C-alpha cells in the first residue's frame, strides 16, 4: 500500500507540475498568474466548483459522522441542494457586477458596492480563515490519513510538508488558471474513485453490508432515524443530546453551514474569473445538487456501515482483497482533502495579494513585480498552513471551525448586491457584527477563550443542536432587516440603485408571473421544510410504517434513506427550475455596459493611510 | 481569434482530455489488476470497458469543442495499443498459464478497442476517408500531377 500511495501521489504531483508549466507558457502576461486572465474555461470551473462544494465541508468527516450517528448524519448531504440554490442565485449577478463595474474579486465587489473598506477586510479575514487554519486542518487530516493507511511508514509530518510542497509548485508556476484546471481534473478523479472504491467494497468484501445490517451505531444513538425535531441540549461539551446531535434542527442548520462553501471568497473568486457561458447553471444544478449530493447520499451509508472500527481497518481489509481498491478509497479521501486545501490556500494568497499587497502595501509595482508579490504570498501561505498542520493541528481545528459559519454570514451582503437594493452598508455591517459574535460564541474558539479567561458558560457548542452558522445567520438577518428599515435612503443608495437599475434594464431575472414566482418560492420553502427541516422527521417511518396503511410494510431499506433520495431528486428539479427558466444559468458579455462606481473610500496607494502606517511600510518596501 | 487565444484554447482542451483519461486509466488499472490476479475474466473485461469509456469521453470532448484527435494523441494511442499487444505476446510466452486463462479475453479486449476506433472513424469520416487515413501507399507519389482529379485525386 505504501508504494502504491507514493506512486499515486507522485503521478498526481507530476501531473500538477505539467499542467502548471503549460499554463505558464500560454499565459498572456504576468498579471494572469493572479486571475487566470479572468477567462477560465467553463468546464474547469464546473468541475472545480463541484469538487470543492462536495469535498470542502469534509468528505472524511462526513463518513466518520455517518458511521457514528447513522442515517441522520447522512441526511446533511442533502444540504448541498441548498448550497446549489444559493450558488444559482448569486453567481451570475456577482459575475455581472464584477464585469459591469470592472471589479475583479468578491471583496472588491462588496467593498466598492457598499463603499466600505471594513467589508473588504471582513472578506479578506474569511479568506484567510479558509487559507490558513481551515487548509491546515485539511492538511493535518491528510497527513493522519496517509500515515494510518501506510501503517506509519509515511509519517504524518513528512506527508504534510511533502504534500504542501508539491501543491505549492503548480500554484507558484501556473497561478490561478493552473490550480483551477488541476482541481477540476482531480475532482473528476475523486468522483470516480469514490464510486469505484464503494462499489468494489460492496462487490468484493464479505460480511453484512449496509443493505443487510444497516449502520451499527453506539448505544443511545438512533442509527436509522432522526432523533427528534429539536433537543433542548445546552450544546456539545455540556450535555449529550439523546439519540444524537442531528435532529432536524441540527440537520437544517448544518446544511446551512454547507452554504458557507459556495459563499467563501475563494469560491466566489472562481465564479468571478470564469469566462461567460453556461457554467453558472451547470455546476450547481447538475454537479453540486445532482451528482455531488447524490453520490454522498447514496454511497456514504455503504462505506459507513463497514466503518464500525474506523476508516483504517476498512482500508486494510479492502487492500488485502485488492491493493488498488484500498488505494482507490484512500486516494479519493486524500484527493478530497488536498484539492480543497490547494484551492483555498491559492485563492487566499492571491486575494490577499490583489486586495492588500498590490493596492496598498507596494502600489508602484510593475506587472512582473506583482507576479513576484503573488508568488511570495503563495510561498508564505503554503508554508504557514503546513507549519500549522504540523505543529498546531488542534488550535488550527478550533479556529477552522469558524470558517464555514463566518462565510455564511456574508449571505445578506451578497443578497444585497445581487437582488435587494435597500440593504444598506450600515445594515450589513451591523448584521456581520451580530452574526460573528453569535458564531464565535457557539463554536469552540469563543467558548475556550471565554471559559479560559472568565469561567464556565451555561452553553456549549451548537446549543439546541443548532449549528453556529444558523445561530449567526438568524440574528444577522434580523439585524440587517431592522437596520435597513432606518437606513434605506442613506448615503450610497444612489450607487446601489445604479447597479440594480442596470440589472433591471439589461439583465432582468425572470422568475415568471405572480403565480410562477409564488410557486417557486413556496415550493422551495416546502421542500426545505420536508427535506431538511422539521418535516424530515416524518421520513423516519414514512416508507416502512406508513400512517395511512396502519401496519408495517418492510421495504428492506431504511425509510429515512428512501426519504433522503426522494427529496434529493425533487431538490435537483427545484434547482433546475430556479436556474434555467429564470435566466440565472447563462452569462454573456453581449450588450454589457460598464458603470463607474464612486471612488474607493480609501484610494490605492498610501495617501489615505495614517502617517505611521505609511512610514512603516515605506521603511520595509522602499529600502 | 488571436494566436495567443488559439494557443490557450488548445491548452484548455488538452487539460480537459487529460481530465477524462486520468480516472479512466485508474479504473482500467484497478479492474485489470484485480482480474489478472485471479478474480475472473469479467474484471479484465471491465478494464477494457473503462478504456472504451475514456475513448468515448474523448470523442465527446472533441464534439463539444469542435476539434479532432491531434497527431500526438493518435501517436500516443497507437503506441499504447501496440504496447498492450506486445505485452500480451510476452505474457503468453513467459507467464505460466496465462494463455489458457487470459489470452482470449485480452485479445478480444484489444480487438474490441480496435473495432471501436474503426467504428468511430467510419461513422466520423465515412468508409473512404477512414481508409485513406491508413492508405500510405496511395500517398507515396510526391509529384504534383498525382493530385489531379483525373489521375485519381490522390491525397
Automatic annotation (TrEMBL), chain A:
Molecular function GO labels: transmembrane transporter activity
Cellular component GO terms, alphabetical: membrane
PROSITE patterns in the cross-refs: NA_SOLUT_SYMP_3
Membrane topology according to the record: Multi-pass membrane protein
Cell location: Membrane
Family designation: Belongs to the sodium:solute symporter (SSF) (TC 2.A.21) family.
Name of this chain's protein: Sodium:solute symporter
Lineage of origin: Bacteria, Pseudomonadati, Pseudomonadota, Alphaproteobacteria, Hyphomicrobiales
UniProtKB/TrEMBL annotation, chain B:
Highest taxon listed in the record's lineage: Bacteria
Organism the protein comes from: Microbaculum marinum
Keywords in alphabetical order: Membrane, Transmembrane, Transmembrane helix
Residues that span the membrane, as ranges: 15-36, 42-65, 74-95, 101-122
The protein's name in its UniProt record: Uncharacterized protein
